């Protein structure tokens, strides 16, 4: 049932049909398939194959999370954070971010860092925030890489380190971030965090 839903949703070997995908996700979810529960929640959230319904989206997201689906854990945390389909509850959001992080969800790692940085659902702890931003950055989360580069450049939550700021900025630039490309060009032009290299500066401009 779940595989059939995937086929209809992604047009693999048949015509794309979101209504049929929804129906098969629903059948699989009602039979205890946790990934189907998670995908059914997404259908309700986005209005794919059915009418948009945030309360039903939250219900199935919660069921999927409780059955061990790490993406659902992260999405459930976001529901609690934003009050989507349920009352806003930052402590519950923090709890489910933690559960998702235990299952190596990269988005949750970044959002957990934000919780520590802003004091959302837990005590503000900049040291913990920095550690989780670093973990997310090491897993190629673009916003985390941006945050980490800024931390090293400005000496926020850690000692100022222009070489590390340059390295993370370079990683961003290599991932197509135009702002990072411009900053990297400036770094090469001014010898900031790296050796001065006008040829490389011209390349990144």
Automatic annotation (TrEMBL):
GO molecular function: kinase activity
Keyword Kinase applies: yes
One Pfam assignment: Sel1
SUPFAM superfamilies listed in its UniProt record: HCP-like
Keywords: Kinase, Transferase
Entry superkingdom: Eukaryota
Name of the featured protein: Kinase-like domain-containing protein
Organism the protein comes from: Rhizophagus clarus
């Amino acid at each position: 049932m779940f595989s059939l839903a995937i086929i209809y949703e992604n047009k693999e070997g048949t015509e794309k049909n979101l209504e049929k995908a929804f129906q098969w996700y629903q059948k699989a979810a009602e039979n205890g398939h946790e990934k189907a529960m998670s995908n059914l929640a997404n259908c309700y959230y986005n209005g794919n194959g059915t009418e948009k319904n945030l309360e039903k989206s939250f219900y199935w997201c919660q069921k999927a999370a409780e059955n061990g689906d790490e993406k659902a854990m992260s999405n459930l945390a976001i529901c609690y954070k934003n009050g989507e389909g349920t009352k806003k509850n930052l402590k519950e959001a923090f709890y489910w971010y933690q559960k998702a992080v235990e299952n190596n969800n990269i988005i949750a790692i970044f959002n957990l860092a934000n919780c520590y940085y802003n004091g959302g659902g837990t005590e503000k702890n900049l040291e913990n925030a920095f550690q989780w931003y670093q973990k997310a950055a090491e897993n190629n989360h673009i916003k985390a890489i941006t945050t980490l580069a800024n931390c090293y450049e400005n000496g926020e939550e850690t000692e100022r380190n222009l070489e590390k700021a340059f390295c993370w900025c370079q990683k961003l630039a290599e991932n197509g971030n135009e702002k990072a490309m411009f900053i990297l060009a400036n770094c090469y032009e001014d010898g900031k965090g790296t050796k001065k290299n006008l040829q490389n500066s011209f390349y990144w401009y």
